[in-house]
Amino acid sequence: MQYKTWSPARRLLALLALLPLTVLVLGTLYMLGMDHLEGSPRTLLQALQWASETMTNTGYGADNRWNHPVMAMFVIITPFIGQCLVFLIFPVLMLPYFEDKFEVRLPQVLPPMDGRVLFYRYGPAIESLVVEFENANSPFVILEEDMNQARSLRDRGFNVVLGNLAADPSVLAPAAQARAVVTNSNDHANATCTLLAREYGFTGPLFALANDPLYRAPMVQIGATEVFTPAHVLGAALASRASHRISPPAEGMHLLGARVGMAEFRVRADSALAGKRLGDLRLRERHGVAVIGQWFGGLFTTAKGPDTQVQPGAILVVVGVHEGLADVERMAMPIRRAGPIVLAGYGAVGQKVVEMLLDAGEACTVIDRVAGPGVDVVGSVLERASLDKARVREASAVVLALSDDSESVFATAVVRDYAPGVPLIVRVLRTPNTERLYRSGADFAISVGQVAGQILAYHLLGEQTTHVENRVKFIRVNAGALVGEHPWHCEALERTGSKVVAVERGGGVLVEFGEGFEVRVDDTLFVCGSLNSLERYQKAFMTASA
What we know:
Low-confidence stretches: 464-469
Number of helices: 18
CATH class of the largest domain: Alpha Beta
Oligomer: single chain
Strand content: 15-25%
Shape: elongated
Helix content: 25-40%
Strand order of the largest sheet: 3-2-1-4-5-6
Distance between the termini: 75 Å
Radius of gyration: 34 Å
CATH topology of the largest domain: Rossmann fold
């Protein structure tokens, strides 16, 4: 059964008809009551005057005494009827009418689309991307079918057009001149938009965001340039962050053999490292280790000089001799890299995470409220009994793939309190909620908007604007412009964020350097850092791979 919604104009007409009808009915009843119950007849005009005065609470004039109980009850009820009309019917009927008349009308025709990107439907998958477009001053238009969503987008300053492809396909005709088209509705509506865009002559790139990977091939067949499934890409990002088998912590470490190691440590608030400057800690001089950088709030920042401060709660990435790493371990909490990976939330994203982890040879423990194949612990991740049963404290990582951000925020706080040393990776539905999850204790919070934005920004803006991950790498280079410098006391080297962790000289490898040590022309250096810091290092010291 379909229910018709009256327009504001029709509701106003109904109100205009209802008011006099109510006054007439109440006035007639009053006239009859005064005649038959009170024995004091009133004319219809007098009765109508009484009804209007009573409904509007303006007073009763001469009529202010009634003896019959039925009449008294009628007089008591009538003012409440008037109040209902004033305080209920007026806001329901009058205000929508005036809002509809005086609000700025939503455009229902696409503007000239030359050089613009058309987004069909707004949603979490593109919310961070449209912000990137605004920051890059790249023009775009959102074609939205939901009026409330369209009004919200207009109020936020976005260029939005209200239209319905099913009711009026011609609204898409101007898209033929668009720079690109991105479809972000359900799979069936995306297919319709793709077909219509091609029928109206659009020949540019058309990117479809699909829910089901089975629809990739059919979507390409009907005209999509590429089809992406953000939910599955999100699952892959969560899995790679949780497993070192999928995403090794550092590339090229085999170059150093067994003499140098790399470890990750969580800095507790009461740790001797928390809040200290690297220059004051002197970890290199005292323990023979170097802090490459720290993960904090989902971002990896390289350590640039002695003024770098160690953040409480951060995960430090430390490279050096094994004895020195053991010394740092006594000051901070080591990150476990052995044990199963615990996942909570076995929906579409959670299943993709588990699939990738199992393919990589990881052991997984799944917590979900509903029993089913693949679920190991039936219960809530908010309950201590479920965490005990899943042995969360023994896990190498915990992934929260829940379907509600509010629950994720609370679950993050619960798990962080229960297992403070375990890496915690959280799926986010709405990108703006990411910061709340970091404040609750998440190590990494990844949203579908991040991964979809990263993919689409690469194709549409020509750059990777959203950085989901930042890798650490070892390289082997010649001495370059570092000749004559001490690798631990070179300010130019510190500014790059990279660290010289070993020097190959005369067939041997040196990992500790005295005060008088200087790099020679024929030395080969082992340098560690993020990809960006290594790029800065090679430019600053004009080095090449050895």
